[in-house]
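Quick one: structure tokens for this chain, please?
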Amino acid sequence: MNRAQRGAAGRAAAVLLVLCSVVVAVVLVRHADWDRASSTAALVGLPLVVAALCSPLLFGGSSPMPNDPDSLAGRLADAVAQQWAEEAEVRSIHDPYPLPVRLKPTDPRLFPAWTVLEQLGGATGGKRRTSGATRTGWARSHQDLLNGDQRLVSVFDRIPTRRLVVLGAPGSGKTTLVLQLVLDLLASRRDREPVPVIVAAAGWNPAEERFTDWLRQVLSRDYPFLTVSTEEGRSRFDVLLTAGKLLPVVDGLDEMAEGLRTSTLRKLNEYLRSPGRQIVVTCRTREFKHACRPLGREVTLSGAAGVGIRPLDGDVVADYLKSSSEGPVRAFDWLDVREALLRTPPTPIALALQTPLMASMAREIYNPVDPDLDADLPDPSELLDTKKFPDVTDLEAHLLDAYVQAAYRARSERSRRTVRMSAEQAERWLVNLAHHQQTRLSGAVDIRWWQFDQAVPHALRAFLGAFIGGIKVGASGRSQDPARGVGWLPGKFLWRFTYLVGFWLLMGAFTPLPLSLSVMAGISVGVVSGVVVATKGQPVELPTAASPTSVLATDRKVFWLLGVLFGLLSGALFGVALGLVGDVRAGVAFGLVAGLYAAAALGMGKAAWGWFAYARWWLFLHSRMPLRMIRFMRDAHRRGVLRQVGAVWQFRHIDLQRRLASRHADR
């Protein structure tokens, strides 16, 4: 029996049960010593209760349209390409040109033998992403991997399993490198190839959830259309996962707690047990070595090869800083720095600027793209002051601090797109934000606006939660997840409404309760309770990547829509019910209180915006953040201090977050 036949059989059985209940009600009325009102209540109430219980069979709902894996992968690829192309522009990775990052071999002892990679690649049919790349296009060993084209996309294609680990020092450009890899893969992607998706490793706790469960959660948040169910009842994410259409790019393994990194590798190996699954992981070199050698044991990422990132040469950095100057006069100011960069042995400035992070920060501090013509630019030769900056650590700390100051320096062209505020004011708020991430959220990288309620003392959150019924958020301490939209389940509403109306009619028939009160109670409670159970989060069908502001806008609409409508509905129903059977003034007062309570309870129970508004005012009144927090963070993203990863923000680099948080005690 197929699905349609089972549905028809269920509806036939439900109709038969309802008809039987009518017969039973008639028999009861004919043989019971009831008055007319009680008989009517029983005659109507019993069939309503039975019909409500059978409503899942009567109103099964229509099945969603089918979604084939190739079409879904194409939609996801378009969304990912648009998302990261826009983010690459905001991060100015091509301004004035991308720093030429060079790759180097890694320690092959940290990875499986190359013959294992060849066997795994052969077991999946040796599938390649380009027409000319067969098994003859594979590298012959770990050492041979970097022979030829050293673009990361070409290196990735030479790995039989297409499983890669990118290692490098802090700030060496790992994230930017894999971002470019994703864009290159998408630019040349064919219909049947997997879609690369970037996820931040710091948001995953491998001790609590499997990699696939966490990946489902992250991608459902960043690409909400993946949560829509197919006609088989599976989510679109599961369809893509089963078909091998996802290529996770797990960025920042080193940003996880030290004790979790080894277990993370083991959990990733569980994910990679399925044939043909591909992956890219980034990590700092030292942290990866420690994760692979825990307590004298050995752990390797199944079927993976690795590449490292070389430090930038002094002449490359010197040319980069000179070419980004606004003119020959400004370029002349870099001559002393250039000489220091080329000196042997390496000077502190040469060691500090050998990573793309620090080199790009120096450019933005001393060679701003659109400076205020009336402002004096800092002299780059101050970087050579060994009394002020005796070692590399002091230089890096100076660059991190000065970068924030430079980001909020007066601008000429961008002044219309950025929020006017003093650098000191912005810096104070950024320090508080970083401190919140490091302390309240245990060093979390993702800045999620719906978790700002964690800044409010737990006692106050618990009190508000208990008052409005938001036990999950208030008492448990967890933050309310943002709503994805508003969905309406008519079958659930009809079931709850019919059941409660029938129940209260039977109460009027079998108890001394007045029939008028039973009718009004049944209608009021039935409507209110039906609305609560029939509203749900609705996945967004638009095949685009979510952003923090789009998630907030959707959640805020849900809050006000459900809160206002449900408050008016609840207040009117309960007020009228009490007014008809009792005192009118009492009905009005009770309706007002019930409406306000119901609005707050449903709004804050179904959406996160109410909790965010509560936290926003708390932080503002305690001078920790501006009242318009989202506007401030959007502005920080435009200025390059924050970066955007799907539905969350992050500081430009974890070292910047940690540096700002460390300065919180100084304020």
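Residues 45 and 506 are 6 Å apart (CA to CA).
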